[in-house]
Every structure is written in structure tokens, then in C-alpha cells.
TrEMBL record:
The chain crosses the membrane at residues 27-45, 67-92, 104-125, 145-164, 215-232, 252-273. GO terms for cellular component: ATP-binding cassette (ABC) transporter complex. This is Amino acid ABC transporter permease. One of its GO terms (biological process) is amino acid transport. It is a multi-pass membrane protein. It is found in: Cell membrane. CDD domains: TM_PBP2.
Length: 322
């Protein structure tokens, strides 16, 4: 090595220390928000209008717990109706037959274009429109069905939800490249085998997140079934107790607490479902592979995770110059 190269090596500057940029505005804004939050909590804790004693006494009341179970039952049953019927509507919507596609489009247009509250009111008044149905050889009495407000609520919520689930399922299926289905057909798979083994596993990664959001939204929409009227769910039962005591605020807090708890549980389940169906959407590379990929693409990909740089195999490859 020449003397000039040795001089350059000795005078090579050291790496600069990176100093994080300070943001005093963020600190001030955060402090103001924390102070406002503390003032609100202090005021709410000492405000008699909230009725914290009533809130504590009715939070675990058996009537409220039973209403919460009814709310869950409404949500699950209506979601089952929505998912099953929505999947059927999605297939009909993508059908090349203009009649079936047009009927599916008309269904989506009606149920997505009218408020769910209006639909529930209509279902509640259906007993005044139809008392029985004549099918030619027999007459079916509908009184027992149309006076059961619980099942009318399930049907009303489920039919409305199916219109939204149809679009979610259709978007998920159409997001799978057509080449996947063509490859499955080339392997001799039937249409159902192609959907079950190829299309749906890939589409579920797109379908699951909005479906979880729809489930959580449907849980809160159950508060509208009082329009039928059905008052056995959480909001209706809480308001019945509140009107009897002339204390609506603490009972609203009770209902809100239960909704928050149930929603939080559903969000946890949604998180694990999303993680399960997102398997294979990310890759694990060594730091050397990531550097090569970054040089080729110009920026590091967002779906890449780096393996432990202390991996013995990575170290041996480095030593061997591979």
C-alpha cells in the first residue's frame, strides 16, 4: 500500500452522530391536551349529573347483562345472514347472465340506498301489510312470524348487511389475479375446488378486515332495532330503566361501557384473524439481501423483515465472500 493511500486511510472522517430533530410544538400541544383531559376527568368525577352511584349499581345488573347477550345474539345471527346472502349476491353480481346480475344490482341499490332505520320500521309494520300468504293450494299464516320482533330484527339487519357484504366479497374475489384461476383450471380443478383452494384463501386477506369492521358496526346498529319496536337489546333495556328512574345519563354510560367492552373483544378477534390470513404476505431477508434489493429498487420494500444479523449462516456466507 502506498504512502498516499495510508494517509487517506488515517484522515478518513468518522461517521457523524445523528441527532434527532426536536419538535417543541408537539410537546406543547401534547401538554395542553393532557391538561384538558385531566380537567375533563376531574370535572366528570365530581359532577353529580353523571350519577356515578347509579352507574355503579346498574353496570352489572342482571337485566343489563341479559340485554347484552341479546345484543350479541342479534349481531351474530344478522352477520351470518349477511355473510351467506352477501356471498350469494356477489356471485350473482359477477354472473354473465344479465337477469341474475340485474336482480342482484337492484337488491344492492334498494338496501344500500335506503336508511337502515327506515327498513327496520317497515319490517315492524309488515304484520299490518301481510297477515297470511296464499300459495294456491294452501294459505300460510304469518302472524306468529311477523309478531316476533327478535327475528324480524335479525332479518332486517341481516338483509341490510348482506348488501354491503356482497360488495366486500366481490371486491376480494376480483382482487385475485385471473391467472390464478386459469392455472387451477389447467390443473383440472373444478370451479368449487378453484374457489376453495385458490381464490378464497387469497381473497380472505382482503375480505377479513372490512368484514370485521362491518361486524363491529353491526353491533352498534342493533341499537336501532327499537324502531321495530324491540327493546330487549342493550340500548333499549337501558333506556327502559332510565325512563323509569328519570336518570338517562348514567344509564347511557352503562350502555356505552358494555358496547365498548364487546367492541374491544371483537377488535382483538379481528386482529388475530387478520394476522392468520396475512401469512405469506411478507418476506424475511438477511441484511445483505435487503441491501441488494434496496440497491435494485431504489428504496427498501415495506413488506420485508430482516433476519437476525448474528445468524451463523449469514456470517459464514460473509466470510466466504458469497
Amino acid at each position: 500500500m502506498s504512502d498516499h493511500s495510508r494517509t487517506q486511510e488515517r484522515t478518513r472522517p468518522t461517521d457523524n452522530d445523528v441527532v434527532p430533530l426536536r419538535h417543541p410544538g408537539r410537546i406543547v400541544a401534547s401538554a395542553i391536551l393532557l391538561v384538558l383531559l385531566a380537567l375533563f376527568l376531574w370535572n366528570a368525577a365530581h359532577n353529580d349529573a353523571y350519577g356515578w352511584d347509579i352507574y355503579a349499581s346498574y353496570l352489572f345488573d342482571s337485566r343489563i347483562a341479559e340485554a347484552a347477550l341479546n345484543t350479541l345474539a342479534l349481531t351474530v345471527l344478522a352477520m351470518i345472514v349477511g355473510v351467506v346472502l352477501g356471498a350469494v349476491l356477489a356471485v350473482l353480481r359477477m354472473s354473465p347472465n344479465p337477469v341474475t346480475s340485474g336482480i342482484a344490482w337492484l337488491y344492492l341499490w334498494i338496501f344500500r340506498g335506503t336508511p337502515v332505520y327506515v327498513q327496520l320500521v317497515f319490517w315492524g309494520l309488515l304484520s299490518a301489510v301481510y297477515q297470511s300468504v296464499n300459495v294456491g293450494f294452501a294459505e300460510i299464516d304469518l302472524e306468529s312470524l311477523l309478531t316476533n320482533m327478535f327475528w324480524l330484527a335479525v332479518i332486517g339487519l341481516g338483509l341490510n348487511e348482506s348488501a354491503y357484504m356482497a360488495e366486500i366479497v366481490r371486491a376480494g374475489i376480483q382482487a385475485v389475479p385471473e391467472g390464478q384461476s386459469e392455472a387451477s383450471k389447467a390443473l383440472g380443478m373444478t370451479w368449487w375446488q378453484n374457489m376453495r383452494r385458490t381464490v378464497l384463501p387469497q381473497a380472505m386477506r382482503i375480505i377479513i378486515p372490512p368484514t370485521g369492521n362491518e361486524l363491529i358496526s353491526l353491533l352498534k346498529t342493533t341499537s336501532l332495532v327499537i324502531a321495530l319496536p324491540y327493546a330487549g337489546e342493550l340500548y333499549g333495556r337501558s333506556m327502559d330503566i332510565a325512563y323509569a328512574m328519570f336518570e338517562p345519563v348514567p344509564m347511557l354510560l352503562v350502555a356505552a361501557t358494555w358496547y365498548l367492552v364487546i367492541t374491544s373483544i371483537l377488535m382483538v378477534g379481528q386482529h388475530y384473524l387478520e394476522r392468520y390470513y396475512s401469512r405469506g404476505s411478507s418476506r424475511a431477508l438477511t441484511s445483505r439481501q435487503l441491501a441488494a434489493l434496496t440497491d435494485a429498487e431504489g428504496l427498501p420494500p415495506s413488506n420485508i423483515t430482516v433476519e437476525d444479523p448474528g445468524n451463523p449462516r449469514t456470517g459464514n456466507d460473509k466470510e466466504n465472500g458469497r
